[in-house]
Design brief:
- The protein is an alpha/beta fold and 264 residues long.
- It has one domain: Rossmann fold (3-Layer(aba) Sandwich).
- Helices cover 38% and strands 24% of the residues.
- It contains 7 helices and 10 strands.
- It has helices at 48-56, 95-104, 110-123, 139-152, 169-186, 197-203, 237-263, and strands at residues 4-14, 21-32, 37-41, 63-68, 71-72, 80-83, 157-161, 189-193, 206-211, 216-222.
- It is globular and about 55 Å long.
- The model has no long low-confidence stretch (mean pLDDT 92).
- It binds adenosine-5'-diphosphate and magnesium ion.
- Magnesium ion is lined by residues 48-49.
Length: 264
C-alpha cells in the first residue's frame, strides 16, 4: 500500500455554457510510496494539473477514489501543500511574512511561527532577503519563497504543478538541484508536474507518463539512477535511454493531436 492510493479515478468538467460534461482524466490508478519523488510528464492538456488538483482536494471526482494515508480525500488539508507555476505570493508581505502566512492559518505560537518561517527562508537560500518584497525578487527567488511556504507547514505530501515553468533554463537547473537537496533532508512525498522530460528524469524516482483524449496514464517508468543526482548523469547512457523512451511517448501524442487538428 502506498501513502497515496489512486484507484479508477475519473474527472469530468462541465463544458462552458452547456450542461454537457467532458472527461479530462479517465480511469487513472496510481500508488505512490511515502517519501518518494514522483514526476508526471505529458503534453499540454493531458490532465496533469487536473490530477494534481484532485489529489490536493481542490476539484471533485466523477468516479474512483483518492486516499492519502488511508483517508479518502474530500477537501484541501494541511497534509497536502501545493506549489503552482506562478508564484502566488502576497505582494504586500515580505519574504519572511509570506512564509509565515501558511503557519498563521494553523495553530502555532507567535514565536514558533517567526522562528520556523525564518528557518525555511534560510533553507531555500534567501536568508539575506527575508525583508524583501516579492517585486524585489527574481522569478527563481519568488518560486523559492513559494516552496519555503509550502514546506514550512510541514505537509506530508508536496504537490508541485510546473513550479519552474516560468524560469529560464539555467535557473531551472539550479532550482531542481536545490529542490532535491531540500527533499533529501526530510523526504516528503513529492509529486512534481512538468512537461520537461529531462527535469522529470533528473528529479524522479518514477516518471508517470500521461497521454490525452481523455487524460490517462500511458506508462510509469522507474528511474534507476543513484542519488544524489548530479549534472554529469544527464549524459550517462542510462539517462539518454530514459530520455529516448519518454520522448517517443510525447512525440506519438503530438502526432495524434496533429491528426485531430487535421480532421477539424
Ligand atoms: N476548469 C475547467 N473547466 C473545463 N475544462 C477544463 C478546466 N480545466 C482544465 N480543463 C480541460 O481539461 C483538460 C486537461 O487540462 P489540464 O489538467 O490543465 O492539463 P495539463 O495540466 O496537462 O496541461 C484540457 O482539455 C483542459 O482544457
Ligand atoms: Mg497544467
Amino acid at each position: 500500500m502506498g501513502q497515496i492510493e489512486i484507484r479508477g479515478l475519473s474527472i469530468d468538467y462541465r463544458k462552458p455554457k452547456s450542461d454537457e460534461t467532458f472527461t479530462a482524466v479517465e480511469n487513472v490508478s496510481l500508488s505512490i510510496e511515502k517519501g518518494s519523488f514522483v514526476t508526471i510528464v505529458g503534453s499540454s492538456g493531458c490532465g496533469k494539473s487536473t490530477l494534481l488538483m484532485a489529489i490536493a482536494g481542490l476539484i471533485p471526482r466523477a468516479r474512483g477514489s483518492i486516499q492519502v494515508d488511508g483517508k479518502e480525500v474530500s477537501k484541501p488539508g494541511p497534509d497536502r501543500a501545493m506549489v503552482f507555476q506562478d508564484a502566488s505570493l502576497l505582494p504586500w508581505r515580505s519574504v519572511h511574512a509570506n512564509v509565515r502566512f501558511g503557519l498563521e492559518l494553523q495553530r502555532w505560537t507567535r514565536d514558533d511561527i517567526d522562528e520556523r518561517a525564518m528557518r525555511y527562508v534560510r533553507m531555500v537560500g534567501l536568508g539575506a532577503f527575508a525583508d524583501y518584497h516579492p517585486h524585489q525578487l527574481s522569478g527563481g527567488m519568488r518560486q523559492r519563497v513559494n516552496i519555503a511556504r509550502a514546506l514550512a507547514v510541514d505537509p506530508d505530501v508536496l504537490l508541485m504543478d510546473e513550479p519552474f515553468g516560468a524560469l529560464d533554463a539555467q535557473t531551472r537547473e539550479v532550482m531542481g538541484d536545490e529542490l532535491l537537496r531540500i527533499w533529501e533532508r526530510d523526504k516528503k512525498t513529492a509529486i512534481f508536474v512538468t512537461h520537461a522530460i529531462d527535469e522529470a528524469i533528473f528529479l524522479g524516482d518514477r516518471v508517470v507518463v500521461m497521454g490525452r483524449n481523455p487524460g490517462h496514464i500511458r506508462d510509469v517508468v522507474d528511474i534507476d539512477l543513484p542519488r544524489p543526482r548530479t549534472a554529469v548523469m544527464l549524459d550517462s547512457p542510462a539517462f539518454v535511454a530514459y530520455r529516448k523512451r519518454l520522448r517517443e511517448y510525447i512525440a506519438a501524442d503530438m502526432q495524434s493531436l496533429q491528426m485531430v487538428e487535421d480532421v477539424v
